[in-house]
Every structure is written in structure tokens, then in C-alpha cells.
Amino acid sequence: MDFRDSAARSHLDSVIDRLVQEYGIGYFKMDYNVSPGAGTDYQTDSIGEGMLEHNRAYSDWVEGIHKRYPDVILENCSSGGMREDFAQTSRFQVQSTSDQQDWRLYPAIAAAAPMMMLPEQAANWAYPQADMTAEQTVFNINTTFLGRFFLSGYINRMSEKQLMLVKDGIVAYKHYVQPVIAQSTPFWPLGLPEWRDKVIALGIKHDSGSLLTVWCRNADDSEVNLSLPQYAGMDVEVHTIFPSSQEFEEWNTSWTKEDAILHVSCPTDEYVSRTFEIRLKGGQVQK
Questions:
Q1: 146 and 190, same structural domain?
Q2: Which residue from 50, 68, 53 is spatially nearest to 13, judged by alpha carbons?
Q3: What integer pLDDT is reported at residue 201 of this predicted model?
Q4: How confident is the model at residue 80, as a pLDDT?
């Protein structure tokens, strides 16, 4: 549809109005999986101008939904996160970051997402499946943990024990992440991720501390050195928040405050992940 045309916008407005008013719909996923081509030369000087006018009209239409229904949540999926321009992310509360379905590859996308959007907008998909090991399920859930929690997969095929692990992830997210993520600032203790990095880390800092996820993808070295300059010269406490079950191996951590380096030992030759909470000791003030 050409959103420059008032008839097209009126038609779509009527659809939105009916779904909200008659069915009480409060969440719309705008996937918009079409290839618009180069644009249109209808009633315009060039196809580029036609495309630009269409895009601006579409953005204006989205703003109209917000004005009529301020409580309705709009997700921009945009063909699996392929259109994450600021014109979109500034108008949608949620941004689906990718259609990537290989859980081993998604962490690089999830860790880089806050470069393009707010952490609370970043909808990174977790795909736990019934044929996965417990560590693989944790790896999956940690991929969505420091963003907008998005869960997929055939959880109806899982055993009771597997379902409890997924439930534990949701409970931990609601307790540790949800209350602070809207006020958080992202940071990258290993720098921005490369696609094939063996170890990837993403953190979010808030007023009371920091949350930090580390993904080890067949790591060559068990020792990971994470730079946390915001805690330089200060004493910190570090504990694992997911997974919290004692059935999982606890990763050893140590803190060198002079260099502001958190040393983490992760298993090698497998795909494993942990999320940590970092807080100051003794009432010190965080920088």
C-alpha cells in the first residue's frame, strides 16, 4: 500500500480501530515482510522521492496509532530486524532484533543490539527446545535476558524439569532485570562483539549496580578478563543470578580493583552462559 494515499491510511486505521475497540488488542507486531522495490514514480518527480514520501507517510501513520491508543504496544519486526533505522526505533516500543534461529549465533546480535536501540527495546529471541541440554537452555534464555524478554520454541514438548528451568529464567528476569532496565546504560566489557568471537559479554549499568551476561562459545581459554572501569578502586560483590539452581556449575570469579578487571572462569569446548549481578560493598558510591 502507498501510505501517501489517504484511502490506504484510512483503511488501515479502520482495521486497527476494530481490533483495539472490539477485541481489546493491546499489542501489534509490524512485520511488514514485503520488498517495496526502488519506490514509485506515481505522482512524484522520481522513484526515490516517491519512496521517501511513502516512508514519511508510514511513520506519520504509526504516530497516529500512538495518539489514539497510547497504551497499545507496537513492535517493529521489519523482516527480522532488517530495518532498524532510527525512524523506526524512535516510534516503536519494541524492536525484534533478528530472525536468527541458531542459538549459538544469536549472542553476537543480542550483545550488539543496544548500539541501535534502548536495552528495553531489544527483543532478542530465546528458542529453548525439548531436545536441548540444560546448559543449552540457559544459553538460550541468557540471550534474551538483558533486553526485552522474548521466548519462543515448543515449550509444550518439554519435561517438567525443563519447564521449571524456563520458569526460573522468567522469574529471575522479572526480579533482577525488569525493574531497572528502563533506567540502565549498556556497556561492553570485552568491546563490541565480532560475529565469530569465542567469548561475548554485555552489561547494563543502573543506579544500584550492574548486570552482566557472558557467553562462552567453545572458548579456547577458560579465563575471561572483563573490564569494568566504573568500579575502579572499589570493592564489589559478584553473584550468579541465572541460572540460580545449584545443579549448575558455579563459575569462579575474582576481582582486581586496581585494574578494574573481573576475572571469570568459564568451561571450554562447549556453549555455556551465565548472567551475574555486580554490586558495591560497604555502601560505596558507584561512579
A1: no
A2: 68
A3: 98
A4: 74
